Target: ATPase BadF/BadG/BcrA/BcrD type domain-containing protein
Amino acid sequence: MVVSDLLFVGVDAGGTKTAALAMAGDCSCRLEGPAAQALRDGPEAAAAVVAALLSDAQGQLGGVPFGGVAVGLAGAGRDSVRGAVSSALAPHLDGAPFTVTHDADIAYHAAWGDGSGALLLVGTGSLVFARTEDGETVRAGGWGTVLGDDGSGAALGRAALRVLLAALDGGPPSTLPEIAAERFDLTTADDVMAAVYTERRPLASFCPLLLAAVEAGDWTAEAALHAEVNGLAKQAGWLATRTGDGLRQRLAYAGGLSGEPVYRAALEAALDRHLPGWDVSRCEAEPVEGALAMARALAG
Model:
């Protein structure tokens, strides 16, 4: 194995974890670190997580200088946020070329490269992102857990707790009280309120409750899941309407939730309704692979 003179690193920094894929010649390594969300954690904190992984990658691959670094960062949808993260990250790169972009950008690159199409990204948050035949980028959704992120892990976690609270209040019967008690020791409404408002547990951490209830045949949980994925699929339909014939009719979906069988089935059914005639498939390439390809392209 030969280590090249330059090190290229792609980084996928998300709301749950941060992944890096580094390559120098024939040598490569994968690394993982804590979450880095620019809006939630702040630009400096997000940059610190990325910088630590870059340092680890350099150490593992012989200390060779950086040839290019591409960072896809959750919460980096605005120029001002990307600029702040870039400023905090630059001192760690010794003048090497680098780019900080939205995490949807690297996932799109993994799916379609420079071609036209759409990407639905669903993990802790959600977003629909597309590139037209003319190279214009457009998006729908992705406005955070307070204002949007339909169909996301956070949205499904919130939906699970709402179904749970309704059942505890005497509403429609559900398996969620039993599942929540077993998995999270949540047996009363006070327990739920304390977990969310006092302990500040991330809403996305409760997402598995909803999926488990759906798998158990819980119709209230199933209705909540279908409502969430339908909201996300509608955003894909809105984006398709906005772009018209300028967008190639293909969509790849990616992100942590997209690999869950029960979620995937519900999402594909919703996309069939809102994108009739489109080629819809799951992206098998990881977003961090798209980031590494973007990093290598920086070398020219």
